[in-house]
Amino acid sequence: MYMRSSIFLLLLMLLVSSCLENTSPTEKKQDSRDKVVDVQNSLKEINTGDVLISSSARLYIADGYLLISDSKGYDKLIHLFDNSDYNHVASTGTLGQGNNEIANLGSIGVDNKHKKFYVSDHGKMRIYSYDIDSLLNMPESYEPIVKVRINNSLFPSSYCYVNDTLSYARIIKPTSVSTFEQSVAKWNMQTGEIDVMEYSHPDVKNKRSIFDVSLQHGIYVEGYQRHDLLSICNLDGMLVCNIYGPDWNGGGKSNMSCYGDVMITSDNIIATYSGGNYNEAYNPTKLHVFDIKGNYQKTLDVKFKIVDCCYDPKQNRVIMAFDDEIQFGYLDLDNVL
């Protein structure tokens, strides 16, 4: 009888410990994400008409326009579409080595307040400024100006622009010809000053991640590309919580493809997820939905392979680029959340 009571108490203690661990304020462990909803039939296709875009497309929302950048474009590398009907309105960003031409297209930062967008050229290590109104008035002759030059020893590979003295950036520090370190930082575009955020998960080596920032909620969310992990931090880089999914392996070397993009909406954190082998199923096909505190809500299965995506707050929709039967489409969140 004593032996049975001891075993029962031990099991009870383990159960309580497990429950406490899974609900820790800073360590959320989610053993199952099985609330899967098939939303493929809810997708609306976007037809780009005569504008030919490769499978390397990247998407941005800027002042009522959908920007599609194409680093493998033959001539023009950036295309603007009206965000109400997705009709093509202009193309810009000439490929080349000449003045104001783009040698190696990088990321785009959006300045909605001043109706501008900023284009990184990783070949010339500079960022060009494009004025949207001027571009639309004279698309054939428009020429951007050089906004800043980039330090090639420590530079932003992508960033969320706030103003000229503050952007939240994914910073790349080359460590050899073929290796680099990656971190989230505050970046002053005017001075070039970089303030690396304090938090980085201690168990993840050779970090590869994507992120999004919300000034509304005062957080940024980092999604790990090779680990089933999301980290929510405040805007000073202090950890709010880690979210571990069922595929988390403790931070060791992984052959998995996990998070591809993360987006913060007014109510949710939405992250694209694969869960397949990195070499065979790199592109995500699902959207994991969490509340702002990181609690799992549901999974939206779009079926198609997602290359990139962005969130349109005005219309509350996720716009996606696919490497599949259709190339571009959107999902209205009002209909599925």
Overview of the molecule:
The longest helix has 21 residues, at 2-22. The protein has two helices and 26 strands. Residues 8-21 have low confidence and may be disordered. The chain has a five-stranded mixed sheet, with no helix packed on it. Helices cover 8% and strands 47% of the residues. The chain has helices spanning 2-22, 132-137, and strands at 27-29, 36-38, 44-45, 57-62, 65-70, 76-82, 88-94, 105-111, 116-121, 126-131, 145-149, 155-163, 166-174, 180-187, 194-196, 209-214, 219-224, 229-234, 239-244, 256-264, 268-277, 286-291, 296-301, 306-312, 317-322, 328-332. The N and C termini lie far apart (52 Å). The relative contact order is 0.13. It is globular. It is mainly beta and 337 residues long.
Keywords:
337 residues, five-stranded mixed beta sheet, 2 helices, 47% strand
Spell out the blueprint of helices and strands.
Layout: H1 2-22, E1 27-29, E2 36-38, E3 44-45, E4 57-62, E5 65-70, E6 76-82, E7 88-94, E8 105-111, E9 116-121, E10 126-131, H2 132-137, E11 145-149, E12 155-163, E13 166-174, E14 180-187, E15 194-196, E16 209-214, E17 219-224, E18 229-234, E19 239-244, E20 256-264, E21 268-277, E22 286-291, E23 296-301, E24 306-312, E25 317-322, E26 328-332
The Cα radius of gyration reads: 22 Å
Shape: globular
Helix run count: 2
Low-confidence stretches: 8-21
Fraction in beta strands: over 45%
Considering DSSP H and I runs of 4 or more, what fraction of the residues is helical? under 10%
Ends: how far apart?
A: 52 Å
Oligomeric status:
single chain
SSE order in H/E notation? HEEEEEEEEEEHEEEEEEEEEEEEEEEE
